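Thread: quick sanity check before group meeting

JM: Hey all, I'm pulling together slides for Thursday and realized we never actually wrote out the predicted structure for the chain we discussed last week. Dropping the sequence here so it's in one place. If anyone has concerns about the input, flag it before I start.
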Amino acid sequence: MSYKDATAYAASLAATLMVSIIVFRAGDGSCAACPAEEIEGDDVAILAEIDPWDLIRP
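JM (edit): ok, ran it. Output follows.
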């Protein structure tokens, strides 16, 4: 998945689950997103972290 698609997916997922989502680049060069709790010392390049509480505007 492209970085743009992974970031859009991560923002949607963060807003739905209300947890922080990490966008990372895998070893094959593709991008993906998963909840921050699931990154446990894996050797991935973290590109962005999306916090749902930052998305909420008063």
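AS: nice. The first helix runs from residue 3 to 17. Helices lie at 3-17, 52-55.
JM: adding both to the slides.
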